[in-house]
Amino acid sequence: MKLFEPIQIKNLSLKNRIVMAPMCMYCAPETGMVTNWHRLHYATRAVGGAGLIIVEATGVSPEGRISSHDLGIWDDRHIEGLASIVRAVHENGSKIGIQVSHAGRKCEAEGLEIEAPSPIPYDEKSRTPREMSKEDIAETIEQFRSAAHRAHQAGFDLLQIHAAHGYLINEFLSPLTNQRQDEYGGSYENRVRFLDQVLEAVRSVWPEEKPLEVRVTAEDYEEGGNQAEDLAIMLNLVKGRGVDSVNVSTGGLLPVVPKAFPGYQVPHAEVIKKATGLPVAAGGLMTEPAFADSVLEDGKADLIYLGRELLRNPYWPMHASLELDAGQEWPEQYKRAIPSRR
């Protein structure tokens, strides 16, 4: 069963191909510090058997948060709390990454000015962001670099750059939200320039042996927006910066609700995998173990990420192993609860 085959990316060895997607918990204090909730939340998914757990969108600056209650990584004081999550996950048998993020025009943290590549609001109820100057861009790139350094100090196994779901990097990538007339707007080469410079800065401090992943929105769901083929072109322009894998999602740039069905994002992941040659993680309502396994067996993706399903059932990997007869070990403490086969 491919779902439970190990996979190696750089020095990261995963016991299976089940990834917990980053999902904001919105329960940090204004300071962005880790709480006991975060430690318990992530450790529980490690007990449940996920091969890789990715910590929620973590702000590289106060204005980079999505809300006032997101985790932060803009201050050295955040390192120890994040390291405590890493230790809890490692102690329970899983590997762990962190998604570092800047919310751009979708920042709803209280009392902060919002910024974006162009002064275009998210919707009619949203504030109009300030167009970023070259100085703003340089400062934000440095914030990503510093965040990567802190993530390494905290002991994370993988670093994920959030370039999806309508947040700042995604706003630069899409022609719908980037109408700049300078070297950061227009062509593929220009729209991907910000991501390229973020990757260059991050790789200067993130160890070469550790995987660096990019999460992308491969479909804007609007005429004139990006599709998977566009993202593949831009990823090919920057993958030489040390991109080791791509987490493929869709939507979030605009207030458009996609028609979701099991595996609806898999075709986008398949396009990017074939066009870039990079390992990809695919997701999208893949709650049935046999279906998730078939996506891997068919070569459409290399890993499967789960979101809400792991909120409902932290032990999904354990039950999936039983359903597929894959033989993944249950924790010793829980073996008495393994369902008997009839």
Secondary-structure-derived class: alpha/beta
Strand content: 15-25%
- The CATH architecture can be named as Alpha-Beta Barrel
CATH superfamily: Aldolase class I
Identify the strand order in the major beta sheet.
Answer: 3-4-5-8-9-10-11-12
Unreliably modeled segments: none
Q: What's the gyration radius in Å?
A: 19 Å
Q: How many structural domains can be distinguished in the coordinates?
A: 1
Principal-axis shape equals: globular
CATH topology: TIM Barrel
> How would a crystallographer describe the biggest sheet?
8 strands, parallel, barrel
Number of strands: 12
- What is the H/E string? EEEHEHEEEHEHHHEHEHEHEHH
Intertermini distance: 22 Å
Question: What's the rounded overall pLDDT mean?
Answer: 97
Number of helices: 11
Helix content: 25-40%
Class in CATH?
A: Alpha Beta
Task: Characterise this structure.
With 342 residues, the protein is an alpha/beta fold. The protein has one domain (2-337): Alpha-Beta Barrel (TIM Barrel), CATH 3.20.20. The protein is 33% helix and 15% strand. The protein contains 11 helices and 12 strands. It has helices at residues 36-47, 79-91, 134-154, 168-173, 188-191, 193-203, 228-238, 266-276, 289-297, 308-312, 316-324; strands at residues 7-9, 12-14, 18-20, 52-59, 95-101, 115-116, 130-131, 158-163, 212-217, 245-249, 280-282, 303-306. It has an 8-stranded parallel beta barrel with strand order 3-4-5-8-9-10-11-12, surrounded by 6 helices. Strand 9 (212-217), helix 7 and strand 10 (245-249) form a beta-alpha-beta unit. The longest helix has 21 residues, at 134-154. The protein is globular. The model has no long low-confidence stretch (mean pLDDT 97).
